[in-house]
Design goal:
globular, 10 strands, seven-stranded antiparallel beta sheet, alpha+beta, 217 residues
Length: 217
């Protein structure tokens, strides 16, 4: 049981990356990406459309952000360390561009609980688990601190040329996962992805709790 415990523990939030990879990028590891339609819109026109990105207000979940098209919300049941399931909430855009965008979030997910709510340990395991679930390898990684919250941003690539770009943000005991999936290097638009990541704002009334769970004491 000890060997599978950490694996089950990270699945609760990593299902976000896996869901998007599987449902919007085809089979992921094979490089076959039927979830994407070929875009005939010139890059310059696509860049102009960035100004039209609507703001998504999820104050009930503690954040706002901008997405290129109206997202739909899904709830995925993911396995946890106790052998049961827990819900993962996620917003996913349709295929309005070559890159699919999503955000997933969970309060006190197992990946935090088993790591004693340590930001570094949690973010490391979340990163490793996301790449493992999507069978991608690291291209680069950056430590980030959006609004002062600890975060981790990385780019990973699969053997077929697809890209998974993810930013984790640990706001108190809530873990957010921003996801951008592109079918190839040429389909990636760095400015759009940066726009998506940087538009994410944790609500001002969501503060890091003064007292963390007993595991951190």
């Amino acid at each position: 049981m000890k060997k599978i415990y950490p694996i089950l523990a990270v699945v609760i939030l990593l299902v976000g990356a896996y869901y998007v990879w599987k449902n919007y990028s085809g089979s992921g590891p094979s490089g076959y990406l039927p979830g994407f339609r070929n875009s005939s819109t010139p890059a310059s026109a696509s860049a102009g459309k960035q100004l039209e990105w609507p703001t998504v207000d999820k104050s009930d979940a503690g954040f706002t952000l901008r997405m290129p098209s109206e997202p739909h919300q899904v709830v995925v049941q993911a396995a946890n360390e106790a052998g049961g399931t827990e819900p993962v909430n996620m917003l996913v855009t349709g295929n309005s561009s070559e890159t699919t965008y999503a955000v997933a979030w969970a309060d006190k997910p197992p990946v935090e609980r088993v790591n004693g709510f340590s930001p570094d340990k949690t973010l490391d395991q979340a990163r490793d688990g996301a790449m493992g679930r999507t069978q991608t390898s690291m291209v680069n990684e950056t430590r980030v601190n959006p609004q002062g919250y600890p975060g981790r941003e990385f780019v990973a690539r699969n053997v077929g040329g697809g890209y998974l770009e993810t930013r984790f943000i640990m706001a108190g005991t809530r873990l957010y996962m921003l996801i951008a999936v592109s079918p190839s290097a040429t389909a990636r638009h760095d400015e759009e992805i940066a726009r998506f990541f940087n538009s994410f704002t944790v609500a001002s009334d969501q503060k890091v709790p003064e007292t963390l769970p007993a595991a951190t004491r």
